[in-house]
Design brief:
Strand 1 (about 1-10) and strand 2 (about 15-20) form a beta hairpin. This protein folds into two domains: about 1-60, no CATH class; about 65-255, 2-Layer Sandwich (Alpha-Beta Plaits). An eight-stranded antiparallel β-barrel has the order 4-6-5-11-8-10-9-7. The protein is built from six helices and eleven strands. About 20% of the residues lie in helices and about 35% in strands. The protein is globular, with a radius of gyration of 19 Å. By secondary structure, it is an alpha+beta fold.
Length: about 260
């Protein structure tokens, strides 16, 4: 029996599969060094096709994929006094996922003071792992969240928020665009190279949202740094981000997260 090992990997082109031999595995699960090329395809269909091939024995080993989690704060959470001990528990918990974190940070009301929720983009082995990540998080266990929105995330920038080149002297915003309920799924995100330069150079996070279980395209997410909310509205209204066909576009004041 011939064996093929598959790993999901990230690149500037998106999410793909790479086949590799066991002795070519890198030290980091799911990321490999190999002379083999990259093929960007529907992962679920590839798995199914390979399993049907009787001459192949397929191992899906240590697959790591990105997930985007937006946790909306409970109504009472924004008025609660800060709890330094709980903050430290949260930061310590997140330390365990630091190597796989693409972005993180709190969202706020328009006053940029009232806490409204939290964003995390992190690579994990699968849906079960991301649900456990959410369930065990200390703020969640303390009852500070009302609801969690979890998607698979196809990172189109190929970098983390810490690699963003812009200076931290302007507001930052998180945009989550989804098809309205009952409407067809939205279009694919605009390729990075096709975005208007005035938007592309300000992107901190950018990628496609996919349903957690069936991997269907669900929307697009971006985090962007702009001088004002009005400047962001102008960029989005001009259609530069390709969001016109999404019926549900949520915009949140946001900032980088991490231990303070």
């Amino acid at each position: 029996m011939h064996s093929v090992w598959l790993a999901q990997v990230k690149s500037r082109k998106g999410i793909g599969l790479r086949s590799f031999d066991l002795d070519e595995r890198d030290g980091r699960p799911g990321f490999v060094r190999s002379r083999a090329g990259m093929s960007f395809v529907n992962i679920a269909k590839v798995r199914a096709a390979l399993r049907r091939a009787s001459r192949l024995k397929v191992h899906v080993s240590s697959i790591v994929m990105d997930f985007l989690v937006y946790s909306r704060g409970a109504p009472v959470a924004g008025d609660s006094e800060d709890d330094p001990e709980l903050d430290e528990q949260h930061w310590s918990y997140m330390d365990g996922f630091a190597d796989g974190m693409t972005a993180r940070g709190p969202t706020f009301g328009t006053d940029r003071q009232t806490w409204t929720g939290s964003l995390h983009v992190v690579d994990l082995p699968g849906p079960k792992a991301v649900r456990e990540f959410v369930a065990r998080e200390p703020y969640n266990q303390a009852g500070l969240f009302e609801e969690h929105f979890i998607w698979r995330f196809a990172d189109l920038l190929g970098r983390t928020m810490w690699q963003f080149a812009g200076a931290a002297d302007e507001p930052r915003f998180l945009v989550l665009a989804q098809a309205a309920e009952g409407r067809p799924k939205g279009p694919r995100p605009v390729p990075v190279a096709d975005l208007a330069p005035q938007l592309r150079e300000r992107l901190i996070v950018y990628g496609a949202l996919q349903d957690l279980d069936d991997e269907e395209l669900a929307g697009v997410a971006l985090a962007v740094q702009v001088p004002t909310r009005e400047a962001l509205d102008a960029l989005l209204a001009d259609g530069l981000a390709g969001l016109a066909d999404y019926g549900d576009v949520g915009i949140h004041d946001w900032e980088f997260g991490g231990r303070r």
